[in-house]
Amino acid sequence: MEEPLPEELLRAPAAGCGVERALEILEGKWSTLVLRELLSGPLRFTELRARLGGPSPKTLTDRLRMLEHQGVLTRTVHAEVPPRVVYELTARGRSIRPVLMAMLEWGEQDAAAHVVAGRPPSP
Q: Number of structural domains, the chain?
């Protein structure tokens, strides 16, 4: 039997609830994956892009700017030639770790359930 929904979720307003707020920050595949990669520590743009599997520079730049604007990461430009730019999670950004860990656990369980059922997991 399925567990009933928690009261907090049932009483959440349709607009502006915590789930909606979290999705504003985790908007899109690249935002979530950027946060995942930066949990391991600061990275340069090229390192981050390589770890992500090569999103376009424009897409990655847009996502990094959005996350910086939301206060979940910082962008530090070091005065060197050529300039070195490093991205790092703020305390607010690091606080998303349990959410990403829950997503990881759910995704792994879902993939395993599909394999057991004889269906390939969807991408």
A: 1
